[in-house]
Structures are given as C-alpha cells and as structure tokens.
Write a structure and sequence with these properties.
The protein is of the alpha/beta class. It is about 45% helix and about 25% strand. The protein has four domains: about 110 residues, Beta-Lactamase (2-Layer Sandwich), CATH 3.30.450.20; about 70 residues, Signal transduction histidine kinase, dimerisation/phosphotransfer (DHp) domain (Helix Hairpins); about 160 residues, 2-Layer Sandwich (Heat Shock Protein 90), CATH 3.30.565.10; about 120 residues, 3-Layer(aba) Sandwich (Rossmann fold). Helix 6 packs antiparallel against helix 7.
C-alpha cells in the first residue's frame, strides 16, 4: 500500500468515525460537485441523488435558507472561510441540525470553489434546548412562587376575617350567606395559589411510602366516570414495581390532571392508557431530565388525541399556557403536575406529534420500604385557650391585625412588631415573659430566622413558630428557617392558628420546662 492510499484510508476512517460529510461546490450557485459517501449514512441520500437531483434550496430548511446563502455569498466575496449552523432535511423527512465549516478556494486572487465539512449536531442542539427550557421553567417557577406568597398574605386576611365574622353573627342573619360566599371565594383562590406553589415546588408536601398500582386501581372507577362513555380507559399495571415516597393527595392530583388533559385532547372519543413500570436510569440514558441515576417507578398516561406540535410541546408545562378557549381552563393543570413531580424528586417527559396523540411519562424514585398505612386523626371539638405572651412579627398589617385579634380573643397577650428590628427592641424592653415568638419568615430588613437567633440571645427559652406563604421545605432549603422548627403555612384559618399556637407552646414547654421572666 503506497503512502497516498494509506493517507486516503486514514482520512476515510476518520470521516466514518464522525457524524460528518465533506462536500465541494461551485462559488457561483453553490451547487455541489462532490459529496462524500457519509451523506447516505447521515442524511439518507445517495451521493448521486445529492449531486444530480438536489439543490441547497431543497436540502436546507426553508427558515434557514436565506441566512445560509447570504453568509456564503458574503464569504465568497470577501474570500474568507466561514462557519454556520443550520437545519437540513433528511431523505426521510427528519430535520437535522448541522455545523458547516467551509473554505473558499482562491486561485490567482479569484474564488473558484468552496469546500465544506458538515458535522451533525442535532443531539447538542436538543440538549441546549432542554437546558434553556429548564432555565426558563425555573425562572417562571420563582415568579409564580413569589406571586403565590403575596396572595397567601391577602387570602389569610380574607379567609380569616370571614371566619371570625361567621362566628359572631346568628345563623339566620341576612349577611351570613354573603360572608359564606366570600369565604368560599377565598378557599377557591387559596387552591389556585397552591397550584402555583406546586409548579414552583414550594408547596407543603406530606410524603409517605405508597404503592402506585394501588393508587391507580383505586382511582380507576372515578377516572372512567370522568372520561365519559366515548373514551375507553385501559390500565396496564406492572405488579413487579417497587414503592414510591410521595404525597398521596398530590400523586392523585398528578394522575387526575394528566387524565383530564388527555380527555380534553379527545373531544370525539378515543383510548386512554395508564401504565406503570420500572426502569433503571443510568448516567448515559437519563432522558432530558435532571434525574439522579438509579431505580425509578414510571407512570405513563397515553392518549389517542390530537397531539401537539413542537411549539406547543415546548411550552406545555408553563403556568397559564393553554390551547383551550378563553374561560375553558386556567392553564395550570400540567404546570401543577410538573411542580409536584419535581418536588417529589422525579421527572416528567412528554412525547407527542400532531395528530398522533401524546404520552406523558412520570419518573418517581423507587424506595425499598413497606407501604405506610393512614392513621386517622381526631382534632377534637372546641378551641384551646391560653394566657401566655406572644411576640408577633409580621410586616403585612392586615395579617398582623388578624393574628393579634384572634390570639387575644383566646386569652393570649400579644406584643406586635412590624419588622425584625422593632421585635428585638420589644424583646429587650418588655419586662414580662415572652413565651412564643410568632414570626413571618420573609420580611424586609431581617428574616424571621435572624429575629429568632438574636432574640434567643437575650431570651434563650423562647419558643419559635414560623409562618409563611412559602412552603416549609423551600424555606429550609434556602436557609431561611431551621429544620424541625414549628411552621404554619399561609393562608390559615383562625381556628388553625389557635390550635397550632397551643400545640407549639405545649410541646415547647415539655422540652424547656418553665419559662423565666426573661425567657
């Protein structure tokens, strides 16, 4: 074998090992005069088809054609090399991303031909798109969580005062029905903010070890009624799957929202399939999600509906994004699913093509533990009272007044502070005992945790109860609250506030003993 042949073979082997092809063309119309055999493996065209039957106008994606030709003309005129990324159409109709690095061949100071190496970069582009989508979802999630936090303050006032008013007027009072409607509206609004918190992964979850198959089986009859007679519900449950650690109510919400979404995609009827399975996710095959390698239980919901185009699929988990008519939906169903699944340590994938239905696959980490049984709770009747002193720190005036009025009605002495600095002044100047610090977590000037830490320097025995419109897990994760500290989630009803304060005081007294005047 001579040196030239050996060099050609090495070059050929290099091309074969890469997702790349070599081409050469005329500088006047850029028509190809040569293309390497790799074109058939990468794009499905034979070299003969590429050279004789195709033009760049048929190969390059229509949305990219003008830009690519403009760059090439400019490069030829300037006699310079260039690199450009664009989409081409494969023989089977696929859209393939390529990076084309081209050299203008110049002879006697004139451009005579152009040569290029075209590398397939589809996988890289998909990963970039997934990263951008993930970053966008994270940003929208933070915005949604902030909005929900602010609304929860307002809803605490609306729901709290409506409940107090209902407790003060007679059952036959002409205004009672109106006040009950106010309270109902507040409750519905609170449910809406919970969906926003679910999307932003800042809601309160109460996970327990569950059998996913049992959850699906228990919901089947209700889901069939929800779907109606025109949609056939099929369940295929893998009996070998392990358990998952999830909030049962939220997991049912995930299934319900996915089923409702599928139903709405099949207005003329069809088939909806719910399947369970298990998969071992490894580093190399983590599918478009930030999943930690390991064992997962997979819940799949598939429909035979209208499907989605790529633009719709890219936005399907955004809050308030909907393809339904105005007034037909909030656009929070799938964003709620996304938030619950991510907060549960899992991931969700969607596969859909226009006219070919959609498949949503939910990945939940598998756990090796027995199923936890539900334990009934008896909250008892009547509300507890107390005589302790509570230092209340809340920057929202309406919430502060509601909380202080409620606690005073039940026997407590309340010291009010508008912010952390004022709370510390009161804590230092008050001559009597302070038994409980009841503080918002997120406030201007000082956080609730900072207030608690500094107050304990002068009153080491003070008991702390935090309250916030953000979820407990999210606050702990961001370092705004110690793990294991008592927490009350906004919006709350006055009855819930009274019970929580009494419980926290009783538990705290059991740990710390009697509280001294400077406690």
């Amino acid at each position: 074998m001579d040196g030239h042949t050996e060099s050609q073979n090495k070059y050929q082997a290099l091309l074969d090992s890469l997702d790349a092809l070599v081409w050469e063309g005329d500088v006047r119309d850029f028509r190809c005069t040569f293309v390497s055999p790799q074109v058939e493996r990468l794009l499905g065209y034979t070299p003969e088809q590429w050279l004789n039957d195709l033009s760049w106008a048929r190969i390059i994606h229509a949305d990219d054609l003008h830009r690519v030709l403009a760059v090439r003309r400019s490069a030829v005129e300037a006699k310079r090399n260039h690199e450009i990324e664009f989409r081409v159409l494969a023989a089977d109709g696929r859209t393939v991303w390529v990076r084309d690095t081209a050299t203008v061949v110049v002879e006697q100071n004139r451009p005579v031909k152009i040569r290029g190496v075209m590398v397939v970069i589809t996988q890289r582009k998909e990963l970039e798109a997934q990263l951008q989508q993930s970053q966008k979802m994270e940003a929208v999630g933070k915005l949604a969580g902030g909005i929900a936090h602010d609304f929860n303050n307002f809803l605490t006032i609306i729901m709290g005062y409506s409940e107090l008013m209902l407790g003060r007027i007679a059952a036959d009072h002409p205004l009672r029905a109106d006040i009950e409607e106010i309270k109902k509206a507040g409750t519905r609004a609170a449910a809406l903010t919970q969906q926003l918190l679910a999307f932003s992964r800042r809601q309160v979850l109460m996970p327990k070890v569950l059998d996913l198959n049992a959850i699906v089986s228990g919901m089947s009859a209700m889901l069939q009624r929800l779907l109606g007679e025109d949609i056939n519900l099929v369940t295929n449950l893998d009996r070998t799957i392990g358990r998952v650690n999830a909030d049962p109510g939220q997991l049912e919400q995930v299934i319900m929202n996915l089923v409702v979404n599928a139903r709405d995609a099949m207005p003329k009827g069809g088939k909806l399939t719910i399947e369970t399975g298990r998969v071992d996710v490894r580093d190399a095959d983590v599918p478009a999600q930030d999943l930690t390698p390991g064992r997962y239980v997979v819940l799949t919901v598939s429909d035979t509906g209208s499907g989605m185009d790529p633009a719709t699929k890219a936005r399907v988990f955004e809050p308030f994004f909907t393809t339904k008519e105005r007034g037909k939906g909030t656009g929070l169903g799938l964003s709620t699913v996304y938030g619950i699944v991510k907060q549960s340590g899992g991931g969700i994938l969607v596969h859909s093509e226009l006219g070919r239905g959609a498949t949503f696959s939910v990945y939940l980490p598998e756990v090796d533990a027995p199923v936890e049984r539900a334990v009934g709770e008896d909250p008892g009747s009547g509300l507890p009272h107390g005589t302790e002193t509570v230092l209340l720190v809340e920057d929202e005036p309406g919430v502060r007044t509601l909380v202080s009025d409620t606690l005073r009605m039940h026997g407590y002495t309340v010291l009010e502070a508008r912010h952390g600095i004022e709370a510390l002044l009161i804590g230092g100047q008050h001559t009597g005992p302070i038994h409980l610090l009841l503080t918002d977590v997120v406030m201007p000037q000082m956080s609730g945790r900072e207030v608690a830490d500094q107050l304990r320097q002068v009153r080491p025995g003070v008991i702390v109860l935090y309250m916030s419109g953000y979820a407990e897990d999210a606050i702990i994760q961001h370092g705004a609250m110690h793990s294991g500290t008592a927490f009350l989630h906004k919006p709350f009803a006055p009855d819930d506030l009274v019970r929580k304060v009494r419980t926290v005081l009783d538990v705290g007294r059991g740990r710390t003993g009697a509280v001294s005047p400077r406690a």
